[in-house]
């Protein structure tokens, strides 16, 4: 790998999450051996995205359209809004197709440690969306972390009195989870939220 | 991920070795969020390689120069030649900087199962390089597999009588290896090649 161009490509690929220096070199080799079937199509795909990239002005999703494909989808139930921390969370929930409504991306979570305040997140825009009317239920789908919970409670406070149901995700044992391997916090949640056997 | 451009990029990335669908989506998100610092530089690195890509006419290495950087490096000992199966093997050995000579890439290994015959590999070119003179030692650095060994013995036969020392790599316990976890073949090799304690 003495060529500077190949080195530069390996370094650019190694910066992607999930690829270390070793797998980046394997990826480079894969691309070098398949110029027409892998290298050229990858360049085209990247260029197409780079040329059309934008952030949705309504929900904060990253898409090649603005407003994004989720916000313009006529089959979505506009009465339900799911609030998430990051675009990755929106994609994860959207892939599962379990949520029929639209989304709102905060762009992070409140964090005293990292100096993230409500002004750094898309909270004012969320309140404005709810105030504009038409939304009946807001699901606060934050991560199950301390910062996620702090963010959730702060937003719930902001939405109080706006006439929407503010919901949170259920906590408990993950499907397939084994009691013996669960952390104490999850166990406590699962016990606290216990319900009658169907 | 409803945009076809983003889907196409995720699929192109997922085809790279080491990236599955999930990590490809994370990589896409990483690129989308860092248009100027990650997406644009990656496109530039790929284009630069695609524009200059070539296979070295001497050794079969993939490089942006032809002859490649290894073959044109004046500090290399031209009397020593290391024969490897794939370009990845050349890179692995070259990174370790343990071999001071030049390389020869076969482009695969003999395989009755996959129908790979000597004519499919760069063996005639290897014999021609050795016949051309100047080479004193050939190290056959094939993989320690049945097919690697078959290939090694075939090439050793072709090089017989050409006045070069034909060597193979040592087999035995890997550094840091624990006896209890080694396979029987490695144990047998390590025992067979035993030597006096220094």
TrEMBL record, chains A, B:
Keyword Transferase tagged: no
GO molecular function annotation: DNA binding; zinc ion binding
Keyword entries, A-Z: DNA damage, DNA recombination, DNA repair, Metal-binding, Zinc, Zinc-finger
Pfam families per the UniProt record, alphabetical: RecR_C, RecR_HhH, Toprim_4
An annotated GO BP: DNA repair
Zinc finger (C4-type): 56-71
UniProt keyword NAD, yes or no: no
Residues annotated as transmembrane: none
UniProt domain Toprim: residue ranges: 79-174
N-terminal signal peptide: none
Family: Belongs to the RecR family.
NCBIfam families: recR
Database matches in HAMAP family: RecR (MF_00017)
Function description: May play a role in DNA repair. It seems to be involved in an RecBC-independent recombinational process of DNA repair. It may act with RecF and RecO.
Protein name in UniProt: Recombination protein RecR
Organism: Glacieibacterium arshaanense
Gene: recR
């Amino acid at each position: 790998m003495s060529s500077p161009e190949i080195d530069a490509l390996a370094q650019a690929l190694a910066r992607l999450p999930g690829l270390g220096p070793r797998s980046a070199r394997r990826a480079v080799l894969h691309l070098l051996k398949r110029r027409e079937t892998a290298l050229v199509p990858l360049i085209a795909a990247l260029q197409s995205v780079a040329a059309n990239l934008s952030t949705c002005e309504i929900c904060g999703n990253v898409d090649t359209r603005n407003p994004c494909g989720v916000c313009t989808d006529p089959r979505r139930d506009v009465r339900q809004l799911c609030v998430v921390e990051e675009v990755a969370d929106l994609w994860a929930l959207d892939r599962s197709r379990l949520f029929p409504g639209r989304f709102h991306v905060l762009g992070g979570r409140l964090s005293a440690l990292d100096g993230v305040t409500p002004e750094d997140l898309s909270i004012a825009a969320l309140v404005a969306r709810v105030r504009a009317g038409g939304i009946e239920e807001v699901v606060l789908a934050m991560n199950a972390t301390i910062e996620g919970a702090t963010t959730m409670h702060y937003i719930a406070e902001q939405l109080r009195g706006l006439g929407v149901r503010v919901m949170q995700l259920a906590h408990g044992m993950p499907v397939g989870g084994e009691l013996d391997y669960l952390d104490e916090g999850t166990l406590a949640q699962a016990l606290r939220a216990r319900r009658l056997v169907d």
